[in-house]
Amino acid sequence: xxxxxxxxxxxxxxxxxxxxxxxxxxxxxxxxxxxxxxxxxxxxxxxxxxxxxxxxxxxxxxxxxxxxxxxxxxxxxxxxxxxxxxxxxxxxxxxxxxxxxxxxxxxxxxxxxxxxxxxxxxxxxxxxxxxxxxxxxxxxxxxxxxxxxxxxxxxxxxxxxxxxxxxxxxxxxxxxxxxxxxxxxxxxxxxxxxxxxxxxxxxxxxxxxxxxxxxxxxxxxxxxxxxxxxxxxxxxxxxxxxxxxxxxxxxxxxxxxxxxxxxxxxxxxxxxxxxxxxxxxxxxxxxxxxxxxxxxxxxxxxxxxxxxxxxxxxxxxxxxxxxxxxxxxxxxxxxxxxxxxxxxxxxxxxxxxxxxxxxxxxxxxxxxxxxxxxxxxxxxxxxxxxxxxxxxxxxxxxxxxxxxxxxxxxxxxxxxxxxxxxxxxxxxxxxxxxxxxxxxxxxxxxx
Length: 447
Fold this sequence. Notes:
Layout: E1 10-12, H1 30-39, H2 53-56, E2 65-66, E3 75-76, E4 80-81, E5 91-92, E6 99-101, E7 108-113, H3 121-134, E8 138-142, H4 143-146, H5 149-152, H6 158-161, E9 165-167, E10 180-185, H7 187-195, E11 204-208, H8 223-231, E12 235-240, E13 243-263, E14 269-286, E15 289-293, E16 301-307, E17 310-317, E18 319-323, H9 331-334, E19 346-352, E20 362-365, E21 370-374, E22 382-386, E23 389-394, E24 399-404, E25 409-412, H10 417-427, H11 442-445
Parallel strand pairs: 7-8, 7-10, 8-9, 10-11
Antiparallel strand pairs: 1-6, 2-5, 3-4, 6-12, 12-25, 13-14, 13-24, 15-18, 15-22, 16-17, 16-21, 18-19, 19-20, 21-24, 22-23
Cofactor: a divalent metal cation
Keywords: ATP-binding, Kinase, Metal-binding, NAD, NADP, Nucleotide-binding, Phosphoprotein, Transferase
Pfam family, one: NAD_kinase_C
């Protein structure tokens, strides 16, 4: 099946997960439940919250993972169950079963290259020649990449450049024209790729050609076989959730309405003015984090934090970070937050240098709506940025609304979501790296 934007990719799922799953709801007959419960007497009780054998009869159903709670087939005691509500319960697959497949063979690819990096010129040329001449793909490249003097002046690359389709950020919409994305650079190229697509995002293959490479698992040395494997549809993917951010700003303008008969000392006509308030809304898709800080001011940041309309706390300090699980290993972990696997459906709230010893980072369920506003008694304004970009000032009356986006980024894995993530923790962040203790012999144990 195709997604809402017509892109020709999808995820495969095990056959068992595609079977019809029985729902237990308020329409169930109480007598039937009672009779089923009676038939189960004498059998050992299940220790998990998975569907009970009474509901599944002889068929083994795989437990469904949910973003907001247990599986709808879960029962609570002999008679209680969950009300069937498909809109409120969103299911996700086991991370190990998330595989990439193509409904139609991919024909177009977007190549994103880190700007002003001479070391990427040769890999970029090799990849583009391979995609156009060997694979017959339509290659999309940003116009400013081709404006690099080293590329523009390369006569051997002229024939290949003529086959490119170019675009400009914030001017051209390529969301319906690209089948998948290849990033050359560091983690910043992946964040930039996310910012280009405000809705459905094509699968992203990221090569480690930057400084850190936590989000870029592929090595360019064997790019031909790896790209061929992706085109054939044989790869695991991890769905990196994004944040949908809406910024509403208030603008106050004075409109002259009436002219008084009086004249001041300088001979200027005096006017009475009315203040007219207008609102402007902007929306962003964020892969890593939304950062609200105090900006250049020497005063503490003072912002109110609402969750689903309820004021939960006021942040006093250098600011606050609202991040996705993908962003938990970026700015948030440097501010003292925990590292969360990208398959965990959650939103992290991390204070930046809070003026309170008890203000610790918290994790809230994915799907809640967070709202950040400048406190009424704040001494200064605040500043906000989205994945380190689009930095802007937040004044009194402005608001920032954050929730989980319906359009995640499908990131192609080198092996699988679990191995790739722990490999990045070990190689990039040196997680739990220490010198091991020497072995203690039997003679030494006596002392």
